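Late entry, written up from scratch paper. The run itself happened at the end of the previous shift, but nothing got recorded in the book at the time, so transcribing now.
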Amino acid sequence: MKQSHKALWDNCLNLIRQNVTEQIFKTWFEPIVFETYDEAEQTLLVQVPSPYVYEYLEQHFVQLIGWALSVSFKANVKLTYRLVTDKVHNLTQDVESEQPADIDLPQATTRGNKTPTVLDAAVPQEINPQLDPRKTFESFIEGDSNKLPRTVGLSIAEHPGKSTFNPFFVFGPSGCGKTHLINAIGVKAKKMYPQKRVLYVSAHLFQVQFVDAKLQNKINDFINFYQTIDVLIVDDVQEWASAEKTVATFFYIFDHLFRLGKQIILASDRPPVDLSWLKDRMLTRFSCGLIAELEKPNVQLCIDILEAKCRRDGLKIPTDVIQFIANTANGSVRDLEGVLNSLMAYSIVYNSNVDMRLAERVIKRAVKVDDHPLTVDDILETVCQHYNVSQQNIFSKSRKHDYVLARQISMYLAQKFTKMPTSRIGQLIGGRDHSTVIHSCSAIEQRLKVDKAFNDEIASIETSFKLKRS
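Output as recorded:
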């Protein structure tokens, strides 16, 4: 009897479940809801609870999902996501999934009635490299903070295991591009050497696989599988701080691969010398190739990254907005992309232009509050609370004393705490011109020089900013 399309999707989920941890499955795959399947178009529509879930699935699991769909539906299925963009108003948006890159996927072969997993690979077979096909050297924008690691990474990808850069240890703070770089090495190496067994794995997943293998008495299969890898890429190795047995097993695998001239690439948020759990012999081996630091991108590199993404995705964002995002996204590539994606989502859902006011609102929600400067909206909100007036009162042309005072204080504080020109401040506070802002700031400054009570009042407002940001 022919299975229903819903049953085929359930089977697809079962295949995925066997290749990820239970926590990952429950977090990212259980919330997916089957909608429809168009057999003529071979198109599957599923609903996800938010744009963020869609972005995460596309960033981390596009290869795995594509493979599971092809095995379950026995067809080249086109996947479309229905994103819930506004739960209150029940707004949704349909977005097509990226097609997986031409990277080898697991084959639909089985042992008896069992689905193959990575632990079944004692005899070398085709494997899913678990690489993100969008994280390539072409999309990795070069700057002063990443020039050396990028150059070395490209050399390794072109000659894996044959350079002096083995192992290659990359470290740097969160959001600096480590995962992008090591993925790019894997994608490039696999493209140039299709016969090589390339594998990207997070330290956490490696540990989960190790524990599962131990519980199933398959440690030998686990070790044998990893010893067949030609290019092994392990991300976030700092997570092994309390996993002594995992580290010992990894070092056994590492030593075997290293002696055979296989390429090993490791990434961490700190250098090897700061990994307290590393024993001396491990530290020596980890440090014998090349240790490269990825620094947070400076403002110019942030601008270059944003402009490149806009060109690639066909986005049109004003120059002043790009500069504002670059100055406030903490030097984090992840934050840059998150803010840009959120801007476009807000723009599409609410049919509004991408401008500075929208950018300020998105930054406020997307970037850690302690690390981003005050926005005009922050200032207006606090001043309005202090003087018990509304933003409409401040924006109005009324000359009522309380409204004028709140308006002038807002302009003064905006000039003091933001990096915006006076013309931009005027536009955001009631559409005034720059001369009005200059006059308002001057009036407040003059009063501060002679009025101690007024000084205390302004200090109280500024303290409110700090309390809200603490």
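The CA atoms of residues 6 and 37 lie 8 Å apart.
(Scratch paper discarded after transcription.)
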